[in-house]
Amino acid sequence: MLVSLTVGKVDAGVAVLLTQDKRLIEFPSILLPPSITSGSIVDITVSQNHAAEQKAAAVFDRLQSEIVDRYGLNSPATPELRLRNATQTSIVLEWDPIDLQTSTLRSLSLYRNGQKAGNIPRPFDMHSTKISGLQLETEYSFYLVLRTSGGTYTSNVLRVKTQSMTDLTGITVTPGVLPPPLRESLEAAVERIGARIADSIRIDTTHFVCTEGRGRDWERANEMNIPVVRPEWIEGCEREGKLIGVRGYYLDANPKHRKIGSNPKLEKP
């Protein structure tokens, strides 16, 4: 289509063109002949470039396919929550390292009984958490919510019940400095009550047992507020058949503060 336009004026690289029905069109003067002035008449041919449209559409389709192949086929993995340990008043939860694929992490949050308990700090490094201050023999539900640029993913709901005072299987002991005979008797007592021994301080360590307060694990136990007790504490738990207080079993505690009881299950008829 051929269109004849009259040049109204040329200013600052822009030419004002007038149509035959007196409409104004601003047009880049660099695209017009250099000899034009006000009053010049220019003919402009306008046509639709179908070949260029098809080429641009093909390029756009390829770009979309590349985006889908790179970002759309593999979604972040849904986290799976597991129980690592449960005691009378605490629970340790764990999960696998988060897999984001090509997405960006926004947050990883823990929910307890349907309410947000908080965000997991350093989610790329932390794969477990400890919840303390719980009630005895009470059921709780937990789940994780992973928020990413590729969507939100909710883990399985994990239902956990805290233990009773007579259930000692949640005790996890890390031994410290102990004479060899005491170490052997400690290991035997731990096995008898169904508890566990961890060679080093872990997130699920419940008690640090030693006769001397020294060493890196002893320092870590104090930093993490893990009770540091003598091996007699395990013997007391076994003797009474329940979880007993630690006050009388600290390294500097007076043995007179120990409340000595008995385990009815071990008494002779």
In short:
The chain has 269 residues and is of the alpha+beta class. Helix content is 20%, strand content 30%.
Beta-strand proportion: 25-35%
Task: Catalogue the unreliable spans.
Answer: none
Q: Element order, helices and strands?
A: EEEEHEEEEEEEEEHEEHEH
Total strand segments: 16
Mean residue pLDDT: 91
CATH topology of the largest domain: Rossmann fold
Query: Rg to the nearest angstrom?
Result: 37 Å
CATH architecture type of the largest domain:
3-Layer(aba) Sandwich
Give the CA-based shape: rod-shaped
CATH superfamily of the largest domain: BRCT domain
What number of structural domains do the residues give? 3
Specify the helix fraction band.
Answer: 10-25%
Structural class, by secondary structure, is alpha+beta
CATH class categorisation of the largest domain? Alpha Beta
Q: For the terminal residues, how far apart are their CA atoms?
A: 114 Å
Query: Total helix count?
Result: 4
Q: Main beta sheet: strand number and arrangement?
A: 5 strands, antiparallel
Short descriptors:
four-stranded antiparallel sheet; Immunoglobulin-like; 3 domains; 269 residues; alpha+beta; 4 helices; OB fold (Dihydrolipoamide Acetyltransferase, E2P); 16 strands; Rossmann fold
Q: What is the element layout, followed by pairings?
A:
Blueprint: E1 2-11, E2 14-18, E3 24-28, E4 41-45, H1 50-72, E5 82-86, E6 91-94, E7 105-112, E8 115-119, E9 128-131, E10 139-148, E11 151-154, E12 158-161, E13 172-175, H2 180-193, E14 196-197, E15 207-209, H3 216-223, E16 228-229, H4 232-240
Parallel strand pairs: 13-14, 13-15, 15-16
Antiparallel strand pairs: 1-2, 1-4, 2-3, 5-6, 6-9, 7-8, 7-10, 10-11, 10-12
Helix pairs in contact: 2-4
